[in-house]
Write a structure and sequence with these properties.
Layout (H helix, E strand, L loop, with lengths): L1 H12 L3 H17 L4 H23 L14 E15 L2 E8 L6 E7 L13 E10 L12 H6 L3 E7 L6 E6 L3 H20 L4 H11 L8 H9 L10 H17 L4 H18 L4 H18 L6 H15 L7 H22 L3 H6 L14 H21 L3 H31 L1 H8 L6 H25 L2 H24 L10 H17 L3 H20 L11 E5 L8 E4 L5 E4 L18 H12 L7 E4 L4 H4 L2 H8 L3 E4 L5 H9 L3 E4 L5 E4 L2 E7 L16 E6 L2 E5 L5 H9 L8 E3 L11 H7 L3 E4 L12 H9 L3 E4 H4 L2 E5 L4 E5 L8 E3 L2 E3 L1 H6 L1
Parallel strand pairs: 3-5, 9-10, 10-11, 11-12, 16-17, 17-18, 18-19
Antiparallel strand pairs: 1-2, 1-4, 2-3, 4-5, 4-6, 7-8, 7-20, 8-9, 13-14, 14-15, 15-16, 20-21, 22-23
């Protein structure tokens, strides 16, 4: 506790190593040499640990990132060591290069593959030279968004490099890296190749088995895992501590069957656990599990009982000293909270209910045992024997068979009960981080985990047996169990309510955590146990229900451009509190057979920002036109926020309309010159006009409209281009607006001078991607806006941007202004003030 508090204080307050070290030494000296009073010694020891943790955090605090003096469009020559061998996915290959520098900084290199170009396999330890365009990883600059750049930096990766088509890496002389890691990566590559051979031609089985067994996710498609995510069983797919437990358990079983002593078997299993951790990529959960197994081995060597909570605390302490930044990592928090919930809540609960009966169901024919156990358990054994005798009389089966069958059935029923209790406790114990990080609390997971986890746990040893032996029959059984688990997840996903949970208020987050801690402390006291359980369930219900108002300013018209990269997504909040989302962003894909991107902008970028604002439902979703960078994220937004209406222009995408009807949203196809009141404002549809027939230029299909509130107007144009702008100028429609969402991301095909003169905006908002390949925004458009003294807000440079009006004055805000004061908690940005204001 003191170590965690110190790391948190160091992160918050930014103590230097010198500022933290001298109090640590002083309090340590007082502990050793000074105070005779016990409570003072304990206080000094606690403060010494606290400042030691701050010192550790300051020691590990990263410095400024390294720099390559080159623009994103320049081709540079990079040389270095291959530290992660080539992996292949459809239409590309990828490897990690450690550059030749004292900092040992790395770049993740991608090479697009042509259909007729043979791939180039690079092994660990090869020195290579490449020609590539280098970019620094950039986050979507919205509050509540995953910090991708920090996640890569924790792996010492500071750039992404794209090799030019048809280029190849030049192999340099000499070797680099270590021989041991070369052996580890050789095992990893051999295992991946064996999986490809065993499941050749089956992309689903090959990609899923590589992810489950080795942790290689380059072939994994998001659509394959969506149902596992919905049902809260995704943890069974990814490399985790459970894999180590299963493999170590199987290895221990075979070693004990072969006659090896207990400690020898444990030592061999521990070596196997660490080897598996290395081969699977040293993912944090596996390393933690291997470390826990090693500590258990040490405890058994010294004849100590391996208590779950003690082992958990020891592993956490070692891990935080080694890497204090892990405390803010979602994986670390979920892993330790899961084991902590089992050890602190499930274990005592089962010990007071089913565990004695489960032990009592063993050897029920031994009457001598009855006198040495609890009376209730002894009575249970007597009743089992009476039932067995009744069965024997009815069926004429031997009494021993009847007893053994009944005992087995009783143990199975008690095991199912225990798994249900553990699953329920884990779901409640992890509700807060699941709501915070993933905005989900799965209810179908209570039963889905009971079926899917054993199936996928069985896949792990069977998969490795097939890898080592090459037996296709074993591989086929593992593949069948994988498909069966997918069907179970699919069935459960249809009964899952699919509730998504906004970020909880700060007070509720503290209350949820406090109630669980109090419950664990007072669980042994029956009088307090039930009150603590009621409080924990009450905070859990509040977390899921979320009856709190979203973070919006009343009687104000708000337009926020969410940073979705090269695309559009706008949040419009109306004076009466109605909420509209205009477009959902998306990823443009090209080619005859484009691969569906793993990034769903609606799910992964737009939705987290809306949840951060406390928004659970929206009134209207507007999809201006059918391009993927506007409509790609719309299906996820419809599912997550269940809009009452979907507004579309000309030629809407069929899948978006079908998704809206699936969730009972009314579909409205709007045409100019429709005008109506909405949300306390006057809304005018400007385009497409009545009778408009869609053409090949999808951009001109855009639904454009003007919102008027008091003396102020906002004009949203989608990707409307020059021909439709000229058509509007020829009409009698009023075009003046104080705020203009600049058309087509600032492309030269939009925002002509006559149109800009007619609108005469004070503020122009441009939604585009950082250093995008289209050259948006066009320099001529920027020059025209500057000539009119229009203030320009750009999502590529400013991140999320917001303009508000009370009908008279305009105010604007942008994410860039808040970056200096933002506290980055691990991989998520947290604005505590905004949460507290809710």
């Amino acid at each position: 506790m003191y170590v965690a508090a110190g790391i948190l204080a160091g992160k918050l307050l930014g103590f230097s190593l010198h500022e933290a070290a001298w109090p640590c030494v002083a309090f340590l000296a007082l502990t050793v040499c000074g105070w005779r009073t016990r409570w003072l010694r304990r206080l000094c020891a606690a403060l010494a640990m606290f400042f030691a943790a701050i010192s550790i955090e300051a020691w590990h605090r990263p410095g400024p990132p390294p720099v390559i003096d080159a623009g994103s469009k320049e081709i540079v020559i990079l040389s270095g060591c291959v530290v992660e061998p080539t992996v292949f996915s459809p239409n590309r290959e990828q490897f990690t290069l450690e550059l030749d520098s004292a900092l040992k900084a790395r770049a993740r290199v991608t090479l697009p593959l042509e259909n007729d170009a043979p791939p180039q396999m690079l092994d660990y330890g090869q020195r290579v030279e490449i020609e590539a365009r280098v970019r620094r990883p950039r986050n979507f600059n919205n509050p509540g968004t995953f910090d991708y750049a920090l996640w890569l930096a924790r792996q010492n990766i500071y750039w992404t490099a794209s090799m030019t088509k048809d280029s190849r890496a030049r192999i340099l002389s000499g070797r680099c890296g270590s021989r041991f890691m070369a052996m580890v990566f050789a095992l990893r590559v051999a295992a991946l190749r064996q999986i490809d051979r065993l499941y050749g031609g089956n992309e689903y089985a090959s990609g899923m088995m590589e992810a489950i067994l080795i942790g290689e996710t380059s072939k994994l498609e998001k659509v394959w895992t969506e149902n596992f995510r919905r049902t809260g069983t995704f943890h069974a797919l990814v490399i985790s501590g459970v894999h180590v437990t299963v493999l170590a358990g199987v290895l221990l079983f075979f070693l004990r069957v072969c006659g090896f002593p207990e400690l020898t078997s444990l030592a061999i299993a521990a070596v196997g656990a660490w080897l598996y951790a290395l081969v699977s990529g040293m993912s944090a959960p596996v390393v933690r599990a291997a470390g826990g197994f090693t500590l258990y081995l040490i405890a058994r060597f010294f004849f100590r009982r391996g208590r779950v909570l003690n082992l958990l605390a020891a592993v956490a302490l070692v891990y935080l000293i080694w890497d204090p930044g892990q405390m803010f990592d979602a994986s670390f928090q979920l892993s330790f909270l899961c084991v902590g919930a089992i050890g602190a809540l499930s274990t005592p609960l089962l010990e007071s209910t089913s565990a004695p009966y489960a032990r009592g169901a063993l050897r029920i024919d031994d009457i001598a045992v009855d006198g040495a156990i609890e009376p209730r358990v002894a009575q249970f054994r007597v009743e089992l024997r009476l039932i067995a005798e009744t069965i024997q009389l009815w069926t004429r089966l031997p009494l021993q068979w009847a007893m053994e069958s009944l005992a087995l059935a009783a143990r199975f029923a008690l095991f199912a009960f225990e798994m249900a209790v553990i699953s329920t406790v884990v779901q409640i114990g992890l509700a807060l981080p699941m709501a915070e990080y993933f905005h989900r609390v799965s209810f179908s997971g209570l039963t889905a985990n009971l079926l899917i986890v054993p199936l996928l746990n069985a896949v792990v040893p069977l998969g490795f047996i097939s890898i080592f032996t090459g037996w296709r029959s074993i591989a086929a059984i593992a593949g069948w169990m994988l498909r069966l688990s997918a069907r179970v997840a699919d069935w459960h996903s249809h009964i899952e309510p699919g509730w998504r949970i906004p970020d909880p208020p700060l007070w509720l987050a503290i209350a949820c955590a406090a109630c669980l801690v109090i419950l664990a402390v007072v669980f042994s006291k029956r009088k307090l146990r039930y009150a603590a359980m009621a409080a924990a369930l009450a905070t859990f219900a509040l977390l899921v229900w979320h009856p709190f108002r979203p973070s919006i300013v009343p009687k104000t018209l708000e337009l926020t451009a969410i940073d979705v990269g090269q695309g559009d997504s706008l949040l419009v909040v109306f004076p009466d509190g109605k909420v509209m989302v205009v477009d959902g962003g998306g990823v443009l894909t090209f080619g005859a057979h484009p691969r569906k991107p793993n990034l769903d902008t609606g799910e992964d970028v737009v939705s987290p920002y809306l949840w951060w604002r406390g928004i659970r439902r929206i009134d209207v979703l507007v999809v201006t036109h059918g391009h993927a960078d506007h409509a790609g994220g719309a299906p996820a937004i419809i599912e997550n926020f269940r809009p009452k209406q979907l507004w579309v222009g000309a030629n809407p995408l069929p899948n978006v309309v079908a998704q809206a009807r699936r969730f009972h949203a009314k579909v409205r196809s709007l045409r100019a010159p429709d005008t109506f009141a909405f949300g306390g404002t006057n809304l005018e549809i400007l385009s497409p006009p009545e009778g408009y027939q869609p053409t090949k230029s999808i951009n001109n299909d855009s639904l454009a409209f003007r919102i008027g509130y008091g003396a102020r107007h906002f004009l949203l144009t989608g990707d409307m281009e020059r021909p439709m702008e000229a058509r509007l100028l020829a009409s009698a429609a009023g075009l003046h607006a104080d705020v203009l969402k600049v058309g087509h991301h600032g492309s030269r095909t939009s925002t002509t001078q006559p149109f800009l003169d007619a609108v005469a905006p004070s503020i122009g908002i441009i939604s585009d991607g950082f250093e995008n390949s289209f050259g948006h925004p066009n320099r001529d458009v920027l020059a025209r806006l500057a000539a009119r003294h229009t203030s320009v807000l750009r999502t590529d440079l400013d991140g999320l941007v917001t303009v508000r009006t009370d009908g008279h004055k305009l105010t604007m805000d942008k994410m860039l202004w808040h970056e200096a004061s933002a506290w980055w908690m691990g991989e998520r940005g947290f604005n505590w003030a905004a949460i507290a204001d809710r």
